[in-house]
Write a structure and sequence with these properties.
mainly beta; Methylamine Dehydrogenase, Chain H; four-stranded antiparallel beta sheet; 2% helix
Length: 313
């Protein structure tokens, strides 16, 4: 089934899971689309089976808490940041719920964590106004950048460059092999006075950058020139909370949650709103992502919803 306008409009909640007792703070699909990882403020990690539509396992992280959970490339391992004790990043074996390695360095809350799409490198950014570059095989930080404000960061799909959004007004592009020379390009955008940038993602084709906020706007810019392409609006965010926005795998659509239980979808090309989908989420939909391989989407408040199209072939 191809992702076209009618299919997008027909997306419906197929299953709801109530595995958590507090907000789901992040989610991440495996590269093959077969499983989904979530972190929650109840200090648990839930692994879902996307093929059968069932929760597989729950792991607890009571001591350190858990946020920003990310699959690594190795089978059954994940990275996450902490919500308690300190701001160390932790590398976890999901198989036996044991830590493989710790990555200490940040002195304030980690707010962005991104795994390289091609190897064992990853980047982290923190409220301590730094971005750190790491390798899973070493607890020592491989690179450190001091910034003028809160960062958001992401790798491009080829894993050759990464983008850092700083102070909710500029996007800096770094070459991974020579990041210590500073950014090779900086895009200055009109500063978002009403809200902060809370997320940054490259489109799967690498041509666009999506900037999500804790306000009522999501920005789409050209990844090469920094030209503003779209500003997606018209969704409810009364509480000033970070709402995740995500691309579909073909980069043709962007989805976002809201604080009133609705999921909004726009065309990246035209900027037109394609659909407003009703979810059964009682709380703010802070997490939403499309499966990289299968025709399904996941959205989360305290509950997890799996979406599928209701279109007949």
């Amino acid at each position: 089934m191809k992702l076209v306008d009618d299919v997008v409009r027909s997306l419906r909640v197929a299953k709801i899971f109530r595995e958590n007792t507090d907000r789901i703070s992040s989610l991440n699909f495996s590269a093959n689309g077969e499983t989904l990882l979530t972190s929650s403020d109840d200090d648990s990690i839930v692994i879902y089976d996307c093929l059968n539509g069932t929760p597989k396992r729950t792991l607890n992280s009571k001591k350190y808490g858990v946020d920003l959970i990310r699959y690594t490339h190795a089978q059954n391992t994940a990275l996450h940041c902490s919500t308690k004790v300190d701001d160390t990043i932790r590398y976890l074996s999901l198989h036996d719920n044991k830590y493989i390695r710790y990555f200490p360095g940040h002195t304030k809350k980690v707010v962005t964590l991104c795994m390289s799409p091609i190897d064992d490198a990853f980047i982290s950014g923190s409220m301590d106004k730094t971005i750190r570059l790491w390798d899973l095989r070493s607890q020592n930080c491989q690179g450190l950048m001091h910034l003028s404000g809160r960062p958001v960061a992401a790798f491009d799909p080829e894993g050759l460059i990464f983008a850092a959004g700083v102070n909710s007004e500029s996007v800096k592009l770094y070459d991974l092999r020579s990041f210590d020379k500073g950014p090779f390009t900086t895009f200055k955008l009109p500063q978002d006075k009403e809200c902060d940038w809370t997320g940054l993602k490259f489109s799967p084709d690498g041509k666009m950058i999506l900037i999500s906020t804790n306000g009522n706007v999501i920005r789409l810019i050209d990844a090469f020139q920094g030209t503003p392409l779209q500003a997606f609006m018209g969704f409810t965010n009364h509480k000033g909370i970070p709402l995740e926005a995500s691309f579909t795998p073909d980069a043709r659509y962007v989805f976002s949650g809201s604080t009133d239980g609705k999921v909004h979808c726009w065309s990246t090309e035209s900027g037109v709103k394609m659909a407003i989908l009703q979810s059964d989420h009682p709380g703010p939909i802070q997490c939403i992502q499309f499966n990289p391989k299968y025709m399904m989407m996941a959205s989360a408040c305290q509950n997890m919803a799996f979406w599928q199209p209701a279109v007949e072939d």
